[in-house]
Amino acid sequence: MKFGSMMRTGLVAAGLLAGAAGSAFAQGAPIKVGILHSLSGTMAISETTLKDVMLMLIEEQNKKGGVLGRKLEAVVVDPASNWPLFAEKARELLQKDKVAAVFGCWTSVSRKSVLPVFEELNGILFYPVQYEGEESSRNVFYTGAAPNQQAIPAVDYLMANEKVQRWVLAGTDYVYPRTTNKILEAYLKLKGVKQEDILINYTPFGHSDWQSIVADIKKFGSAGKKTAVVSTINGDANVPFYKELGNQGIKAKDIPVVAFSVGEEELAGIDTKPLIGHLAAWNYFQSVKNPTNEAFIKTWQTFTKNPKRVTNDPMEAHVIGFNMWIEAVKKAGTTDPDAVIDAMIGIAVPNLTGGLSAMMPNHHITKPVLIGEIQGNGQFDVVSSTALVLGDEWSDYLPDSKDLISDWRKPMSCGNFNVVTGKCGGKGK
Amino acid sequence: MLFLRPLARLLPALASMLASGLIAVSAFAADLPALVGALTTGSFGDRETAIGALAASGEQRAAPILEALAAGQLYVRKSDNLVLIGKTDGNQLALTEAISGKTAGSGSEAELDRVRVNNRLRGVIEAAVGSLTLMSPDARVRRGAAEALFKRRDASSLAALDLALAAEKDPRIKRSMSEARAASVLASDAPPAQKLEAVALVRERADRDSLGILQATASSATDPEVKAAAAAGANAVRQTLAAWEAAQNVWYGISLGSVLLLAAIGLAITFGTMGVINMAHGEMVMLGAYTTFVVQEVIRTSAPHLFDASLLIALPLAFVVAGGIGILIERGIIRFLYGRPLDTLLATWGLSLVLQQAVRSIFGSSNREVGAPSWMSGAFQVGQINVTYGRLWIVIFSLLVFVALIALLRKTPLGLYMRAVTQNRPMASAMGIRTPRVDALTFGLGSGIAGLAGVALSQIDNVSPNLGQGYIIDSFMVVVFGGVGNLFGTLIGALTLGVVNKFLEPYAGAVLGKILVLVFIILFIQRRPRGLFALKGRSVE
């Protein structure tokens, strides 16, 4: 019955298009797109939004007629903030649903968990969140920022514009902050900052009592040198952290805090008046004024039926990733993973900050780095922006990775090519 | 004509300035509109110069314009390039002309371009406004100006400070101003003798800011005598501060302890006296926090003037909501599982997930904003300890809840029944107490108190579906440590863990600190399996 109706549809479509010089695939079965974001558990707070934005992008693309003449169909699964479940769900998407590409993951540990699955089954994953680098896989496209697209420019900004000489590197205790802080520490020392002017502090996930740590920061900041806090504090712990900063009267002009995990979504739960002037570094802010972004915000707010719904950086990463994938599928003329992976490199699509982002041979993209200051209305004012920066997967500031590069073009096709030994396969993954 | 206009406006300002012998020469060099115009264009660097020029102009309007700029309230109207000050008034902005100070109706953000500032400019503006308002008739403004200049320590504010000092009558403000002057002297290239005097003055202040100044002087001074004096001063200040730091840790510990107490005290009832391992206890706290959110939303939309009372209104409601759901849980699930701790644990664990997801479906997964009423915002200083009103009220509130609960258990018939049932169920039943009803009420009471905790915690933590999860482990820790079934044990346990945690944190870091506390409790339980205050008597068996 189902087969029969499909045949009929196929015949009708073929009949209709027989005269037209069109694609042979016209009106075939829909192309499935997997969405692998937690809709329950601790990460639901951040990831649910990304699921929504993907549904919106797919709906918009279908309004334009889909791709290759076929409609797109979203397959949404819920890995429930459970890292092993991510791998199971990824396998389910690739094997059972036979999706053409997967958009998903937020935390690094969830990405590490699905990585072997994608490599084994030759799938395509688009990863939209800023991460610690030190990885390059043929099957993953990293549309979020690498440390050189977020952390390093932020530190440069503070050094140049606020003359910061003392640094507190505060983070949640897991792989992203630890690696980022390692890179930053190496970078700061390279810039002549002494060990005694760097304070590194880690806190557990969901830390809620910040009194003594904020007091510590205050103490560290009273050494007569301009001090700044570089925060890789994750998710939920940020709200009590910022509340405590406000409570203890730490103003941005005394000790500015620059954060890499705080965006418009996270600020939605706090009164930002005491936080005016604290900074965040991203590749996108909702407040960026240009027609593409304004149109995007409008579509998003209409789609979610909420005129106050905010947009953020990982959403933009998904927009870029999705549009790149559409272009690559068009270029390859098929959704076959090998063909699409090869077609992806070199594709450039407009980003939401008014420029073009391109996919490079290391599976990272070029984006501008924006530094924004928190405003009283929960938005950011951009105070500095760079030209396009290419994500550097292997940090130049870590001894283990400074000689490595990644190039997925043939004939090299290597994720960790050691330029000193001239061999593929150095340290790391 | 060109300078008559600003001159007329300048007269009041000039009068005071002439009296003190300062004539702002540059006021005649450029007129106000040009100065203000320069604020709104060019790079941040250009605007920094413009701020300096405006401040030096001595214009009376300079201070309000600069203050508006720092607060992000300075706008340029797109249609006619007029510079306006806009204050939020509902959805609109109430506008005044920046240069004349005349009201200019209202407008929306869309018609206006906000003049952007960054941290650096805010600092420059604060110092500029500081110099401009040193002569203000309002004593509070003068004091604030002096404090701002102290922190800024810029040699260029010396002249203004000298003038203000000469005119100042209030001894306390005079003191602030001379401290600000000393800080500025240390930043200038004054002779060593003056600097030594300044070092002494800054040293007497003995707070974090003065330590910063002394350390900076100790490392940058060229004169060896000044350098030595500053280093000695910094050491002395550091010693004073170390004592305060210990006191501060105790306060932070008490504050953390009070939060633990609030979260654990409901559990002390349900787990401690009833023996029910309730993994959904944290979710009762979360429900209390969401009740607060709903109350505030209703107040915001229908009766904004009641906002300061929102928490007081939320308290009974949170108690009823969480308590009611607690009774439902007891009647619907837990009463079938008495005596089967493992089943209870699993059932309530599942229930906690159900409640979390239910809240997530209703309110969405993102954090909800719960505002602080004015009487809970802000902070005050006790010596060098910074006490925030929010934390102070939570400490007081947790003690009140504790006292009320003790009174309920000791002085009311319900309390008598509860104690009777938990101590000897068959006997209580034989005496005519309806034990199932008492069970339901006891569980409801424990849950209701968790709801109260939620109201307080909404002030310091995220109001998100995960709120409760963060407290469940800590709550069990406190109850087990304090002694199961003993409320005083819970009080002492919570405060001890709070203080120990806060003393460990600076040395061991937050992660290791938590681990150490956990190890300590495990070892302690090994020695005294029944906690700090073990219950004695038949009920224990």
Tell me briefly what this model is.
The complex is a heterodimer of chains A (429) and B (541). With 429 residues, chain A is α/β, with parallel strands linked by helices.
Describe this protein's structure:
Chain A is an alpha/beta fold and 429 residues long. Chain A is 36% helix and 20% strand. Chain A has helices spanning 2-17, 44-63, 83-96, 108-121, 151-161, 175-190, 211-220, 238-247, 264-267, 291-303, 313-332, 337-344, and strands spanning 31-36, 72-77, 101-104, 125-127, 140-142, 166-172, 198-203, 227-232, 257-259, 279-282, 348-350, 356-358, 366-374, 380-390, 404-407, 414-418, 423-424. In chain A, helix 2 (44-63) runs parallel beside helix 11 and helix 3 (83-96) packs parallel to helix 4. The model of chain A is unreliable at 10-26 (pLDDT under 50). By secondary structure, chain B is of the alpha+beta class. Chain B has three domains: 4-126, no CATH class; 134-222; 245-540, ABC transporter involved in vitamin B12 uptake, BtuC. Chain B has 20 helices and seven strands. In chain B, helix 4 (62-70) runs antiparallel to helix 5 and helix 10 packs antiparallel against helix 11 (224-273).
